[in-house]
Amino acid sequence: MNASVLAHRQVQPGGAAGAACLGFELNEQTPALFTMNQVQEIIVLPAQQITPMPNMPPCVLGLSTRRSRVIWLVDLAHMLLATPLPANIRNYNVVIIRVAQRSQQQNMFVSSAHNQVLLGLVVPTMRGVVHVAPELVQKPKGYFSPGLMPCLRGCLLQQDEMLLVLDAEAIARSPMLQSNWE
Fold first, then answer.
1. What is the pLDDT of residues 145-155, one digit of tens each?
2. How far, in Å, CA of 44 to CA of 111, rounded?
3. What's the structural domain count of the chain?
4. Fewer CB in 10 Å around end: N or C, the chain?
């Protein structure tokens, strides 16, 4: 990714006004953000608490439970960048998002609390919360991988580092994942 094509803009410090965003890394070279309104919670999950599922895409690590609810766990970097997490990880950093499940009759997302799915997006490193003024987020250019583009809201610079602003709902609506929930 080439950060030089973006205008140099800064993320506001933690106490400043703006949208609260969760910072994390997809891999060592790719920092990213979700807006906090897309995040339910963040947990550290031991690898032995994940049950692998057969016939799933390679990015789907398996299932786990949280508060008596089933959670699908997805290796986010593997899904978006085709770079899987190392195999020897003992604990996973998981960003849990809640998404509406597709209705089979209507073929659209429904908002009933009974038709929601918890999706755990596994990332290697959490960075914490930053506040971003929405006007600082710029439209993505065509130099990102095709797997990433549908899930990318935009990008911005922070201290000469480009941050990807991802759309958790678009990730959950990915045809790769949706076909396994229906």
1. 778 888 999 99
2. 28
3. 1
4. C
